[in-house]
Amino acid sequence: MMTFFPKTHFDFLKYRKVYFTISALIFAVGIFLFATKGLNMGIDFTGGTMVQVKFEQPVPMSQIRQALTLTGHDSELQTYGDQTYAVREKGTEGNVGEVQARIEKALDTLKVPYVVQQTNFVGPSVGQDMTERAAWAIILSLVCIVIYVAFRFNNILWGTSGVIALFHDLFVMAVAFALTQREIDLVVVAAFLTVAGYSINDTIVIFDRIRENMRLNPRASLRELINNSINETLSRTVITSLTVIGALLILYFFGGEALNSFSFAMLVGCTCGVYTTIALTTPLVYVWNKGSQAPTQEAVKPAAEKKAVAKEPVRETKTESAAPAKKSVRKSRRNRR
Questions:
Q1: pLDDT tens digit sequence for 175-198
Q2: What is the pLDDT of residues 28-47, one digit of tens each?
Q3: 3-class DSSP string for 76-101
Q4: Is 265 exposed, middle or buried (0-12, 13-18, 19+ CB in 10 A)?
Q5: Measured between alpha carbons, how far is 20 from 31 in angstroms, rounded to an integer?
Q6: What are phi and psi of 54, to 5 degrees?
Q7: Which DSSP helix (H) or strand (E) runs through 48?
């Protein structure tokens, strides 16, 4: 197997306080951005107008997007195939006609005949329902991950630390969207859930190695076990992460506008997931399990010395009992003579 780091001995736990400080600063900046800028929720969550049109001749999707930018408003474009497209724009129920007229005016610049098949308004109640469903999907996925990791490793603290790292990844993704003011739609929510599954997979790989090293090296301390496990899986983590990030970069630059927000969310989440697995999950396990860590070599050595001391008196007793027996035999021989 190809390895980038054949043999490393990095002390990752040495800088755990630095990791915790960085995470605290990220949370502080994120709360500030949410309070000042907020999240730019898409039409799926806020409501708006949807105009579905069908062109009589093939038209590149890029040209349609370019024409819609002339309206000066942010519009979402979705294709249904067979030259049928849905143009969606934020707005209220009272300006549906205005939005439709603005969209038709932009499409007229393409000089291609088209037919407006339908115009609908997505109300805020539908958007609220989608918001609740998306929130429940994320919450339930995190709860299921806690239960799975706790059941697999027989320690709820390990599962809790893994979910805290997942929440950290999702929070960083939300901060990135608040900072760039990209729209959050259902596709982005799917990216959030995908990152949660990807990040916990990398965490479980390291947890498995820690548990294996606990059986192979029972005398090692928890600090040594965690550092050795991260170093042993470091090459695998780097290769896997670079492969995923490379594919996401291709999607980001060449996947088109439809996949741009999705690939952006995945890039931020997967990159942050590598950091949290090494710098947040395992340090939390170390801090929380300090009192129940595996016995160290110093602790095992005194125990072995006690066993040796306990055996010595038994040997002395046997020696003393053997000496009188030899004397009695000699006396019996003298008497016979």
A1: 999 999 998 888 888 898 888 878
A2: 999 999 999 999 888 877 77
A3: EEEEEECCEEEEEEECCHHHHHHHHH
A4: buried
A5: 17
A6: -130, 125
A7: strand 48-55
